[in-house]
Each structure stands twice: as C-alpha cells, then as structure tokens.
Amino acid sequence: MGALALIFRRELALAWNGGGGPLLALGFYLAVATMIPLAAGLPISDTPATHRLAEVAPALAWVGLALASLLSLERLFERDFEDGALDLLALGPVSLEGVSAAKCLAQWTANGAPLALAAPLAAIALGASPTLAPLIVACAAIGGIAFAFMGGIGAALALGSRRGGLLIALIVLPLLAPPVIFGGEAITAFAAGLSWRGGLLMLTAYALAAAALAPFAMAAAWRNAAS
Amino acid sequence: MIARLSVQGVAIQRGDRRLFEGFRLDLAAGEAAALTGANGAGKTSLLRAIAGFIRPTEGEIGFGGEDGRLLDPKEARSRDIHYLGHQDGLKTSRSVRDELVFQVRWTGGDAAEALAAAGTLRLTPLLDLEVRKLSAGQRRRLALARVIASRRALWLLDEPLAPLDAAHRAQVGELMAAHLADGGLIVAATHDPLPIPVKPAPVGA
Question: Is B175 in a helix, a strand, or coil?
Fold first, then answer.
C-alpha cells in the first residue's frame, strides 16, 4: 500500500505543477460553456432561444466535460516515456497495472474532481435548473472516473506516436460515449421528474468496469511501447 | 538477493536488423562486466533485455539467489535491479530533493538514505534547486545517488561516467568497488575504461 500511495502522490504533484494542468482543463471547460450561448443566440429573457438552451444545458455541460477531460491525457504516460521514468517505474515494487491505476486516479483527483465541481456552474449558467446541481456533480464525478481510466487506455496506446494528442482523442471519444449517454439519461430523467436511478447506476457500473479493466490494457500498451 | 546473473546464447533483433547473437555472460556476486562495442552494436539493448524491458529473440537470461537457486525473474527485477540508462527519468520541473527521495523510496530505500547519498555525491547544496537547473554532470550524479542510496544487488549502467569530471569519476569508481565488495554485481556499457576490475564483454563483435 505504501508504494501505491507513493506513486499516487508523485502523479498528483506532477499533475498540479506541470503547466497548470487542472486550471487549463477548467479554463477550457468554462470557455466552451461561454461560447455555446454566443453560438445559439443570445439568451435574452423569455425568448425561444433561452428555453431551447435551458433544455439542452445539462447535455451541453456534460459534453463539454468529456472534451475538457481529454486535454491533459497526452501527458499521462508520454512525459514518463520521453524522459525514461517509465523504465524506473517498471522496476518498482508495484506492477505496471498498479502504476497505471494510480496514474488514472491521480488524473481524476487533479482534473476530474475540479471539473465535476465546475459542471453544475456551467449547466446553471446555461439555464439549467439549480435543483439539478447535486445530481450533475455526482454524475460528473462518477463519469470522470470512466473518463480518466478510458482516457488512460488511449494515452498508453498513443505512446511514442507523433501528434499523440489527436490520436488519443480519436481512440478515446468513442469509449466516452456510454458514460455520456448514461449520465445524460439520468439528468434528463431527473429534470422531467422521472426515475433517474437507472442512468446513474449504469454510469457507476461503467466507471467501475473501466477502473477494473483499463489498467490491464494500459500496462500491455506500455510494455509494448517500451520494447 | 541476486547473487548470479546468467546470460546464455542471447540474440537480439531490433526491427529487421539482428544486433548480435550467441552472447554469453556469467557474473557472480562481487563481479563487474564492461559491455564494449561500436555505436549501435546493441549494448543498450542488452542492458534493457537484462532489465526485462525487451525480450531477446533467442537465449535465456536468468538470475540466481545466494543459495544457488534460480529466482523468479519478475520478482528479481522488481526488487533487486537498478537500471540507469541515458535518460534518468528525472522530472525537470521538480526539486532535486523531491525527485531523489521519490526515486529512492520507489526502489526500496528511505528518505534518510537518499539524503545521505546526496551528501556522498556532494549534491546537498543543490537539493532545493529544480532539476532543470543542474548541469549534465550534476544531473548524472543525482541519478547515481538513487543507485547508491537504495540497496539493490544488480546495477545495470549505461555510460555511467560519461558526463562526470575526473574527481567524480574516481569517486564513483570507489562507490562501485564498495558495491562489489558488498556482494553486488555491475553490468556497465561503456566506451571508457571503468576504474574497477571488470570482465570484458564485447557486444556484436
């Protein structure tokens, strides 16, 4: 347990101090949320545009979240690959699967959790009802785990390729579709006064499956890149 | 603890090119081997194969324990091998202290041992600097501090002395000799003669 905590703390420190990671994702997220009303027509009170935007506000907040969580994935494995740290990590007391899981958890703590807190703000600013806020935070936090672990697979697969960032987005976005669907379903159902538990449970199940299986895929991709 | 390294008939292929074949090396506790050969002969690939990062095309690499029995290679590598390549895995944006303590603890040592090794290699005044501010020689000493701080039997070193000045080369030579006297093993790829007695191991000749 000590070694896992050690690698987790290192990854967290790197995520925080390496070029303003979380602030970058947050800034991107808020910029996207600000752009949407500009494109959809200015929401002057009680115009059709306002209602149209309010209806899809949670969905827009949710998609923005998925995009923002892609931003810092490129550095998750790549920087350790380039400077030789992956070799050091491979000779440590924790298996590569464990190291990969610790990296994704740190990614979630540094990026996913702050984004989850920002998500209701973005949704409400776009016109969603404030009563949705707790559910949006919960969905964003749980979905963020799925984003981090599925994103980690893309990051590990893209190791050593030029323009890895674009490749990661192409690999990862389809894997992020299910959590976006489940989370969106839960929020829409809640807003309509229907049962929202099913969507949230599906989202949680997907996040848990991602956390359980993705480390094996990441470690395999990592071994392949190192050889 | 690793007390014996046995490399039998190893061939390594990178892409379409076969770097070498039939490489043999037997090393017992207290012995060092110097891998020599032209640029591109496969010295680094051989070190990486011993460390388990790449799989040899042919041949066997095994580790023996003090009682003469074969060790599980995975476990031996995760506990008892230091690999120091051209790239040292140090994060340029972090402080010397943070990086050294992390690397030492990750390889099984503790913070006190890390700081003691920093003292030995005269890194103490640099501990609060960012790694990016170090010169090539200081940075190599920092990487070597990890190797001497956490106790692991088999050292795999790729050009360990290249950026060091004469005084530090001599000092690192003494540290290597002390490691061998302690029952350690060293395999070093090098173009310059090492300041310790070594078994010559030409690669790709």
Answer: helix
Q: Is B188 among the domain residues? A: yes
- Find the mean pLDDT for residues A187-191: 88
CATH number assigned to the domain comprising residue B77 = 3.40.50.300
Mode of pairing for the β-strands spanning B58-64 and B4-14 = antiparallel
Q: Is residue B104 part of a domain?
A: no
Q: Is the dihedral of CA A4, A6, A9, A15 positive or negative?
A: negative
pLDDT for the residue A60: 84
Cβ of residue B88 closer than 8 Å to a chain A Cβ: yes
Residues 6+ apart with CB under 8 A from B88: A83, A84, B139, B140, B142, B143
What's the first-to-final CA gap in chain B, in angstroms?
Answer: 32
Residue B99: inside a domain, yes or no? no
**pLDDT exceeds cutoff 60 at A19:** no
Q: Say if B69 is an interface residue toward chain A (CB within 8 Å).
A: no
Give the number of domains in chain B. Answer: 1
Contact residues for A78 (Cβ-Cβ < 8 A; gap 6+): A155, A158, A159, A164
Whether B131 contacts A18, CB under 8 Å = no
Does the structure show a pLDDT above 90 at A216?
yes
Section A91-95 average pLDDT:
91
B87 touching A (Cβ < 8 Å):
yes
Nearest to A85 among B79, B86, B89 (CB): B89
Range of the domain at B177: 4-91+152-202
Whether the pLDDT of residue A1 is over 60: the answer is no
The span from the CA of A108 to the CA of A57, in Å, is: 24
CB contact under 8 A, A84 and B107: no
Say how far apart CA B147 and CA A204 lie, in whole Å: 43
- A105 within 8 A of A8, measured Cβ to Cβ: yes
Q: For residue B24, tell me if it sits in a domain.
A: yes
* A87: nearest CB among B55, B83, B98: B83
* C-beta atoms of B94 and A85 within 8 A: no
